[in-house]
Design a protein that fits this description.
Elements: H1 3-9, E1 24-26, H2 28-34, E2 37-41, H3 54-67, E3 72-78, H4 82-93, E4 97-103, H5 110-117, E5 121-125, H6 134-146, E6 151-154, H7 161-181, E7 187-192, H8 196-208, E8 213-218, H9 224-241, E9 251-254, H10 265-278, H11 287-299, E10 306-310, H12 316-320, H13 322-328
Parallel strand pairs: 2-10, 3-4, 3-6, 4-5, 7-8, 7-10, 8-9
Antiparallel strand pairs: 1-2
This protein binds the ligand Cc1ncc(COP(=O)(O)O)c(CNC2(C(=O)O)CC2)c1O.
The ligand Cc1ncc(COP(=O)(O)O)c(CNC2(C(=O)O)CC2)c1O binds next to helix 4, strand 7 and helix 8.
Length: 329
């Protein structure tokens, strides 16, 4: 762990949910296809339940909740939300109650099947976008307070300054891995949903002075709005850490294929390609689209000679949208 990152994070309560460093894996066949070196940081293997990037954020978010004496966790997402399920599982593991405030069709598949299997309380609302769930989550919190409970609301995707500390810490872990492996990356690529992961990467790179270009592949909202959201979140997190930083704007490219959650043939084909070539499973909502963007831009020479992909998890999405993908292949 980078000493400066360790020192900066020491004062924040953190629950250890990830008992190891996630490995960095070289992809020989994909690298050969692209003519550049492609590595993957296996944050799909963060180890709690379905793993993924959210577990890093939850170490600090649930640490904060416990420090504040909370007894019930509330969070939001689509019914297929990786964030919602892994938050609920972590909360249960810590002996906390949890209520998931979700949107979409209650199809018992993927993460929603896991929510039900684990007996997690879910409230599903018919709203258009996940942020439309915020007033409902606040209502649930109020209802719980009236019952004498102490609720703690985790924002969508854990995208708050406290949650973002999780990916500042990841860069601290990565920097020492790069040193011991003698590896220097030109770019670091991740899937952008709520923007919290990229914000943590951006701030972590600045704090460690690692000369690596952060590149986000947006799977939903993109453009100026998302870039500004990521930079603002990184700045708020820097303020939380009590550091002043100069942040360069991250490059964020649109690989939503037109809409968040839209299942497309190109990504289904890419999931099959990476799965059969490298034995690594990507998902159709996040990592499959992000990796498609990585291959697309690498072919155009826009990502440098050595690229690190952050595999942020999302496996249940394969089972939620499996039939849709098969129909396209
Ligand atoms: C597998 C996977 N990969 C990347 C991301 C994007 O991370 P950020 O939200 O930090 O940008 C998610 C998010 N998912 C959200 C969810 O509700 O699951 C927060 C949107 C993800 O699940």
């Amino acid at each position: 762990m980078h000493p400066k990152i360790r020192a900066l994070l020491a004062k924040f309560p953190r629950v250890e949910l990830i008992p190891w460093e996630t490995p960095i894996q070289y992809l020989p066949k994909i690298s050969e296809m692209l003519g550049v070196e492609v590595y993957v940081k296996r944050d799909d293997l963060t180890g709690l339940g379905i793993g993924g990037n959210k577990v890093r954020k939850l170490e600090f978010l649930l640490g904060d909740a416990l420090a504040k004496g909370a007894d019930t966790i509330i969070t939001m997402g689509a019914v297929h939300s990786n964030h919602a399920f892994v938050t609920a599982l972590a909360a249960k593991k810590l002996g906390l109650d949890v209520v998931l405030v979700l949107r979409g069709k209650e199809t018992i598949k993927g993460n929603y099947l896991l929510d039900k299997l684990m007996g997690i309380e879910t409230r599903v609302y018919d709203v258009e976008k996940t942020p439309d769930l915020i007033p409902y989550a606040e209502e649930v919190a109020k209802e719980l307070e009236e019952q004498g409970k102490r609720p703690y609301i985790i924002p969508i995707g854990g995208a708050s300054p406290v949650g973002t500390l999780g990916y500042v810490r990841m860069i601290g872990e990565l920097s020492t891995q790069m040193m011991s492996l003698g590896l220097k990356f030109d770019t670091i690529v991740d899937a952008v949903g709520s923007g919290g992961t990229l914000a943590g990467i951006l701030l972590g790179l600045e704090l460690t002075k690692l000369e690596v270009d952060p590149v986000g592949m947006a799977v939903g909202i993109f453009g100026e709005k998302m870039t500004q959201k990521v930079v603002d979140l990184a700045k708020e997190t820097a303020k939380l850490l009590g550091v002043s930083v100069e942040l360069k704007e991250p490059r964020i490219h649109d690989y939503s294929f037109g809409a968040y959650g839209k299942i497309v043939r190109e990504v289904a084909e890419l999931i099959r390609l990476v799965g059969t070539k490298e034995g690594i499973l990507l998902d159709p909502v996040y990592t499959g689209k992000a990796f498609y963007g990585l291959m697309d831009l690498a072919r155009k020479g826009e990502l440098g000679e050595r690229i690190l992909f952050i595999h942020t998890g999302g496996m249940p999405g394969i089972f939620h949208y499996g039939e849709d993908m098969l129909r396209l292949l």
